[in-house]
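Write out this protein's structure.
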Amino acid sequence: MSVRYGTRRAGRRTGGLLTGGLLTAALVGLTGCSDGSDSTEADDRPTASTTSTAQPTPTPTAAQGTSAAQSSPEEAVAAWVTAVVKGDAEQACLLMAEAGTGSSPAVIGSAETCADDSAQGKQIKQSVAQFKESFTPDPPTADPKVEVTEATPTGDKATYPADKISIDGQTLADIIVSHSTGLKPDQLNVSIESSKLKDAWYVTNMDFDIG
């Protein structure tokens, strides 16, 4: 699939990570994948760099729970990105949540709702597969090393721009641009939000602005 970006500007916040339109809005703007002939020229890409200090912990299995990868917002984001790049939709789901609003309680991914054969699990699997396409560095590796630069949380939330997240030494921003057709580095503004819910950190939203 090849998506060409013109002067159109799309700014969205992907609410409803676990219910409703899971990440669907973001996928419209971020999965501009193409073959080498249509890719953005290398000279138009910024040099990949990383100043990450947070080291991700191994993503646990559904049976083990997710506490080992959620003691800090950086670890939660790193573990989630790792699961996406590996195409592990169940693990990505377990690391996702929706913060409560008003009388509505927080919604946290569970082994039951994230199972491959559940309705939600099937939806997440499809979305994660599309994100994997945009998040995977070239060349890909079987065990990607994801690092996230430490940020100071605001209350129980912390936000990480794509240029502060690296995968095998390449920033997530660079990787997304490399998989897009006609998208310039300065046209991309992507960030991942992590929130603390029930004494653990989860990925709760993704903001993006393309245009």
